[in-house]
Amino acid sequence: MLTGHAHTAAVSTFAGRPLLVVPGVISTLRMPWKGPSPLATRSQPPGVAFHVHDDTGRLTTHYRVVI
C-alpha cells in the first residue's frame, strides 16, 4: 500500500502487512500527550523517508530529518 504523507513518522501493520508512515515536509502532528491543540505544529523539523527495494526483494526504509 502506498499513500501520501501523514504528518508523522510511524510503523505498524494493516491487514497483516507492514505499514510505514512518512513524516510531513511542512508540519507534524502533535502527539495526544502533548495537549489538545493545535493539531499540527511547525516547531518540529520536516522529515522524509527513502524506500530502498533491493535485488532480493527486501524493502528498507530510511527516515531522515531535513534541516
Radius of gyration: 14 Å
Q: What is the overall shape? A: globular
| Uncertain runs | none
Q: Which series of helices and strands comes N to C?
A: EEEEEE
Averaging pLDDT over every residue, what do you get? 78
Q: What is the number of strand segments?
A: 6
- Helical fraction: under 10%
Give a quick account of the main beta sheet: strands, pairing sense, barrel closure.
Answer: 2 strands, antiparallel
- Quaternary organisation of the protein chains: single chain
What structural category arises from helix and sheet content? mainly beta
- Termini, distance in Å? 28 Å
| Strand order in the largest sheet | 1-2
Could you walk me through the main structural features you see in this protein, from its secondary elements to its overall organization?
- A hairpin with a 5-residue loop joins β5 and β6.
- The chain has no helices and six strands.
- The strands form three sheets. It has a two-stranded antiparallel sheet with strand order 1-2.
- The chain has strands spanning 10-14, 17-21, 28-29, 40-41, 47-53, 59-65.
- It has one domain.
- The chain is globular.
- With 67 residues, the protein is an all-beta fold.
- The relative contact order is 0.23.
